[in-house]
Structures are given as structure tokens and as C-alpha cells.
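RECORD TYPE: protein structure
NAME: Pentatricopeptide repeat-containing protein
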Amino acid sequence: MGSLRIYASNAVLEMYVKCGKIDAAWRVFNEIGSLRNLCSWNSMVMGLAVHGECCKALELYDQMLGEGTSPDDVTFVGLLLACTQGGMVKKGRHIFKSKTTSFYIIPKLEHYGCMVDLLGRAGQLREAYEVIQSMSMKPDSVIWGALLGACSFHGNVELAEIAAESLYLCLSLGIQETMSFFPTFMHQLANGMELQSSGK
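PREDICTED:
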């Protein structure tokens, strides 16, 4: 009976999170009480992160650990997203490192993507590029796209060209996708050059 209840409660919790009804999600989360499992925690952490409640997401993670629930790879996506949304670079670095050193969770594409996005938004473009270079798997178009977007915003034409070329290679598996990518690339690169020339 307990397993059916937690399954139903988690489904309702996830529904509220996806609809952006965080207060309602909190109520369900608290009602679950001692029956909360990792899915419950992950849904709430992710929901808080996505909807800008970054500090609350990190606090909830600490509570989760305090109650004896160990995180998984999904948990860390939510935590890194929270750090990205809140611009907490130092905290994000610590969380990314602890994932491996404390919980022996091997980084996946999603985790690397979050780190590239976090560092890129903060203007730490060279470090974001170094994260990509350190990856144990091949970066995908999402990761190169995140770096390209950050380079465009911060006006780093040199790294933008590297990111754009790598993104082109990722997308070249589909001719139609590649063709549609060119206007976006040219627009982003032009924006970067304008920012650089204006000294921003």
C-alpha cells in the first residue's frame, strides 16, 4: 500500500513541478513525509532549480543528505542547474567535483553541459572550453551550442569560431540541420564581433 501511495504522490508532485505550481508541489512533498524516496527529492530539487528558487534547491539537497538519501546523476543535474540559474560558479564547481569524489558518480553529458553553461554565463569562457576538452566522451551539439551562445554574448570571437566549427561537425550528420544552422552561426558570430569592437 505504501509503495502505491508514494508512486501516486510522486506523480502528482512531478505534475505540479512541470506546471510551475511550486507551492502545490511543496505541499505534496511535505505530505509524503517519511515515505519520500529519491524520486521525490529529485523532482523537488529540479522544480526549485528550474523556477529560480536556487538557494532553496541547494538547501533541500542538504536536507536530503541529512535524512540519509544518497543522490544520483539526476540530482546533480538539478543542483548544477540551480547554480547556473543563481550564478553560483564556486558552488557549482564544488558540486561537480563532489559528484565524483564523494559519491563516485561518473559525469555524463548533461553534467558537462551544465558546467559549460554555468561557466559560460559567468564569462569564464576559457574555463568552459577546458571543461569540454577534459570530457571523457565526445561533446554533443548542445554543449558546443552552449559555448557558442556564451561566446556570442561575451564577444569572444576566437572561441566562438572554435565552438561554431565543432557544432557544425556535430550537425553535419544531417544536411538539413546543418543548412539551417548557418544563419544562426553567422548571426551569433556577428553579434560577438560587434560586442568586441564596442569594447563590451
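COMMENT: Residues 107-200 form one domain.
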